[in-house]
Amino acid sequence: MNYILPLLSVVFGYAIALLIQPKKKKNLKLLLAFSGSFLLSLTVLDLLPEVYESHQAGIGVFIMLGILFQIILEFFSKGAEHGHVHGHGTIKKLPWLLFVSLCIHAFLEGFPVGQHHNLAYGIAIHHLPIAVILTTFFLDAQLNKTALFFFMMAFAVMTPLGTFASEALPGLQKYYAKITAVVIGILFHISSTIIFESSEGHKFNIAKISMIILGILLACFI
Ligand SMILES: [Zn+2]
Ligand SMILES: [Zn+2]
Predict the structure, then answer these.
(1) Which residues cross the membrane (predicted)?
(2) Ligand nearest to the backbone CA of 82
């Protein structure tokens, strides 16, 4: 499940976008709001206590480094990790910077999944709307179908690959708490940005608030 869920969610999102080409942006926004609060809650409830219990020095610094790292990644990805795409017109070539930064992001996110099974659900729910949004964007931009397929499949395998690396490379185990702290920083930034961007102009929106509360509750009882 740890490997399958994050993989399938991207493949599924890609397929949905290809087959139905969702017109209703509203539902996607709600799913995004839910994924943001669910992911943030899992991070605070599950991941955060564990890294501090490891009693390693400088854990807080690594969390801040994770936040900083994600901010830097978003200079290149323009916010694709939180379902934000910019640009008009057609895209002829694969956007490599976006691709590489999205892959690094997804790979790192896979790291703590082996120890935190709930996070597999969190990442899956977080990457599903992003796969739909990215595929729809690239289809509109008339990106080559093969390049699009390659892009989405690579994105899909990155998180399971990160999980695999954390379990298969014993050398990394020594740094488990520190790398997880970096991932916590990444998740903090991503999920709070998703929640922030889903509430346009800070207007009260009962549907979005409900999705955010639902995300918190689900993370508490899972
Ligand atoms: Zn954004
Ligand atoms: Zn992600």
Answers:
(1) 6-21, 28-45, 57-76, 96-113, 119-139, 146-169, 175-196
(2) 1
**Residue pLDDT, tens place only, 82-109:** 888 876 677 777 788 889 999 999 999 9
If you measure from the C-alpha of residue 177 to the centroid of ligand 2, how many angstroms do you get, rounded to a whole number? 19
Secondary structure E strands in the chain: none
Split into its structural domains, the chain has a count of 1
Ligand closest to 128 (CA) is: 2
Judge whether 145 lies within some domain.
yes
Helix axes 145-168, 117-140, angle to 10 degrees: 160
Q: Which residues of 123-139 are buried (b: 16+ CB within 10 A; e: fewer)?
A: bbbbbbbbbbbbbbbbe
Using the mean position of ligand 1's atoms as its centre, give its distance from the Cα of residue 53 in Å.
33
What is the predicted pLDDT for the residue at 100?
93
Domain membership of residue 175 as a residue range: 4-17+32-221
